[in-house]
Amino acid sequence: MTTKTGRTAVEEILKRVAKDGRSALTAPEGRAVCEAYGIPTPQERLATSAEEAVAQAGELGLPVVLKIVSPDILHKTEAGGVLVGLGSEQEVADGYAKILANAKAYDASARITGVQVQQMLTSGQEVIIGAVTDPSFGKIVAFGLGGILVEVLKDVTFRLAPTSTEEALSMVDGIAAAEILNGVRGSEPVDKAALAEVVHRLSRLVTDFPQLAEVDLNPVLATGAGATAVDVRILVDPAAAEPVRFSQDEILAAMNRIMKPAAVAVIGASAEDGKIGNSVMKNLVNGGYAGEIYPINPKAAEILDRKAYPSIADVPGDVDVAVFAIPAKFVPAALEEAGEKGVAGAILIPSGFGETGNIELQNEVLAIARKHGVRILGPNIYGYYYTPENLSATFCTPYDVKGGVALSSQSGGIGMAILGFSRSAGMGVSAIVGVGNKADIDEDDLLTFFEHDDNTELVAMHLEDLKDGRAFAETAKRVSAKKPVVVLKAGRTSEGAKAAGSHTGALAGNDRVYDDILRQSGVIRAPGLNDLLEYARGVPKLPTPKGENVVIITGAGGSGVLLSDACVDNGLTLMRIPDDLDAAFREYIPPFGAAGNPVDITGGEPPSTYRNTIALGLSDDRIHSLVLGYWHTIVTPPMVFAELVVDVVEEFRRKGVHKPVVASLSGDVEVEQASEHLYAHGVVAYPYTTEKPVAVLGAKYRWARSAGLLP
Question: How much is the pTM?
């Protein structure tokens, strides 16, 4: 796409900008950069006198636009440095003088290169295309409609750079007002492929040149014949640098030793109840961990019937993991010894590092770890659990219910909420991991391990930020193709956008970027903590659907309406029931019931009506998922309903028919036990809510779509 000559041209421009010590390109330089990467711009010239401006306007053809060119005036409009629609030679000459006067009044010390004389484009739909350097994700590109829709409604989409042309087209189609681009009220449809190509080319530009901090193409005029960047604004950051990254093999080598250690040392182990070092020791010993456990305490000879050592250096064998239960100020010296011992992971439980403003100490500890090739988990964490190894390396309560869900949290409090929910719901977990300050190990390291962990079926993560969002997005995209990844992103607002220096930067509110890029990576985003936990528990229970057709079978019309709303809210497709299937359902429901979708069997029906309609839904290949709405009656009591549903679902499973079935139960307190019975047998069911079961089904569908498992 981009020739070697084009890249060389951009390199020369950026060298000149760096030599001048500038943080921004002039408009002509910006146009030259766009031209080098095949991004269309209007014809233009640079005038240094009124006479020259008039002559150039004649060459380009009136009317024209005049813009001030100054390395010191970034916001040209604010400085009165833009005049449009100049239709005569006199207007051009007067405009030239006016722009210079405005610029000097705005900033008397500003260096004036000249005035840009630009061909004026008079038709087309205004859009904005830009790129910014996000603190979490690095280079991202943005697309939105121009004018009020982008300024007020923030109708914009984001993707990681570089984008493919297909991803760029999904951005164009992904804004809420995309229909405008298709032509409304007689207007001409725009060339969306041309817009996508501009996005794609811009994404390549900022990828090739990381020092391009922000690029604004605003507006870009789109017509049926193409797309042209009318105004170009480019900011540079010569100090731009990529974060330190480990290879997949390096991550796996360390994480396998951390999660499956043959030996664990507890630095700060204690025999005194109530001490963190005592709690960690008790959890390791009493939790059934079969590896070697080495207490490290210079003042003790023995702790919990195990020989204690003054230093980790005194331990006779190899050590994979060192759990630190000592005050923060003592960590650097102890970590030096652990590094020399060859440990793979340092689990830093203590607080008093970056979270309290002590960045210097945290950086010192990280430097020591890097020197010795040690990976740090934390600091400021509750520790971690890995149930396949009976490993409870934590000072919190132990947990030993094994299963396929791996969970992580950035917050200790959220970690304990995860633990409590898991225990209450009987949810089997493979791991629960605290990441705390994330000085080193973060979510993409964990994802890399869980991707290859046969004990993990789903990964659920609470996070407040991402240290390296690009690494996370790339890893999550790979992992979510095999296993569902659920994320609760805390902090939905961003004050940082207020200080942004460009339109694109101002639009790149933190949560908006997270939302688009997490979706691009195939991640299931949970709106709240309970949603995260319910998705983690329920999504693995549901078979992967084979298609989009969802049918509601309900004993209560009101529940059917709410379940329909919930399906729409969660992106599910309510099947249009064909005539033959409608007739088949009517064979089982009373005349005053309703077929269609929802299928309303009414509340006074016996168990056989539920059984027959559910069996029909499972037997017809055109139906891919069932949503059941139960209404408590004496005719069909809650446990009778639950047992018949389990019976018919298991009957079809034995025949090889595996469809997702979720249920909403309305009634007296007996529906709680009925819901538990259903859930225990693979039917995701909840009492007193129509939203939750459908939300879990919607999460399963979102994952199946992103993983390419649905036609």
Answer: 0.88
